[in-house]
Amino acid sequence: MESVTGASLAQLPDEMFKFILQPVSMPDCAGRLGQLILRGRPAISTPNYVVPTSRGVIPHLSQDNLQKHTNISTVYVPLEDFIEKSHAKAPLYNTPAPNGESPLRQYIGLPDRHLSIFGLRRVPNIPCPAHNTDSSVAISTSVGFRSLEVEQYHEAVRKLKADISTSLPDLINTKVASAKRIEKSADRTRAWLRDFVEDIGEETGLPFFASIPPHETELLSLYLSDLKDEYNSHISGLCVYSPSTVSGLPGALRDIPTICLTDPSSPQAVLAAIHAGVDLLTVPFVTKSSEHGIAFSFTFPGWPQTPNQPLGFDLWSTSHATDLSTLSTNCTCYTCTRHHRAYVHHLLQANEMLAWTLLQIHNFSVIDAFFSAVRQSIKGRTFEDDMRTFSRAYESELPALTGQGPRVRGYQMKSIGRGEPKKNAKAYGKLDEQVQKLSEAESGVASPEGDADYIEAHGGAKKVE
Ligand SMILES: [Zn+2]
Question: Is residue 161 assigned to a domain?
């Protein structure tokens, strides 16, 4: 049954965008099933995951591997990845895009079957030292911090034509904020949405989602009532930054899809977000785990008979050096059907980039099966019981990261200033052993002239006159 469609709110041409909610009601659980349909892309069953990209790509997955060996449907692309010093001169804007295609899609070479969601900042991102102002937002580019005019972001949305764009929120960097600052955050987010609607209107013909900053919903009541009454004909969905925001949303805003740009620490945190009613959420922990040699081993809901199983295992561990078993039992991904743990362990030890590719393929296969099982569980109305089973069956956190990952870039890690230890291990040494030998030779300890007699006296080579 089609209960409510996003298109009825968004008034988009020819039902370009549609969100169909399936009627599954569970007491004490806001988790729900839906279908997100955007013309020209395959329908996406929700709840589902969104993969954050880094400078336009999913780390370690080339476009052919992405298509052949994963079921990833949606990617998140942040603007701050592409604009370094000058916003206007960014090559992203000069990409030829014939027939009204999206320059963003052309620039990053995103295959047609993947949905692109566009926002300003990475997930997760580095807090900027500067604050937002009424007309600009602080961002962190690959060459440092800077600010971007709100109008420039709107211009980017208009030019780049991502499948779904999100409006700008005024997010607060500090952990604690005064009531005045929270009020200002709500006011700015509202003002920027108003400008967004005025600047863009129906021009792109593509849906956009209204951002809601992560404050208590009582403090956002004015903004939320505006979303519901004034802007409901313009927005196709909501973009939140904490799953807890969803629980406080008024019923009138629950018929449209909600994406959560968040950094859950574990699959349990993902389940909690789905339980709260999030339809799509980012899962940065998958790439982070792959990069540190962790292979996921969980399934949903798992088996309560064997409690406290690890959620994954560390392939850097030498215990896998001769282990010829697959990464995970019953996994049918490319990695598990062709390789074994010992091989991936060897690749990690040898600093071979292929290790991260194989782990990404496996881990995304596990997370895909996890979401698929969650949807089945909601459909069968057993989601809450299954959540409890999962909590009993698995440890609460992913394994600790012990192994070395790829080189960390400046835009991935905040600098703490002077005296900070090096983020990346030395890739190449100075052949220290050779340097030592050379200095010994120069000092005469092992030079042929100086020690020939010594060598001969000790039963070494004979000196020839
Ligand atoms: Zn696998």
Answer: yes
Q: Which of 10-19, 30-39, 171-180, 356-365 has the highest mean pLDDT?
A: 356-365
- CA–centroid distance, residue 172 to ligand 1 (Å): 39
DSSP state of 240: E
Asked whether residue 38 is domain-assigned, the answer is no
Whole-angstrom distance, CA of residue 239 vs CA of residue 280: 9
Contact between 163 and 116 under an 8 Å Cβ cutoff? The reply is yes
pTM for this one? Answer: 0.87
Least confidently predicted of 22-31, 208-217, 394-403: 22-31
Alpha helices in 32-128 (DSSP H): 63-69, 103-108
The pair of three-digit structure tokens given for residue 365, joined into one six-digit string: 């296969």
For residue 289, report the distance from its CA to the centre of ligand 1, in Å: 14
Q: Domain range for residue 362?
A: 292-406
In the chain, the number of structural domains is 2
Residue 123 belongs to domain with CATH number: 3.20.20.105
φ/ψ of 209, rounded to 5, equals -110, 140
pLDDT at res. 397: 95
340 C-alpha to center of ligand 1: Å? 10
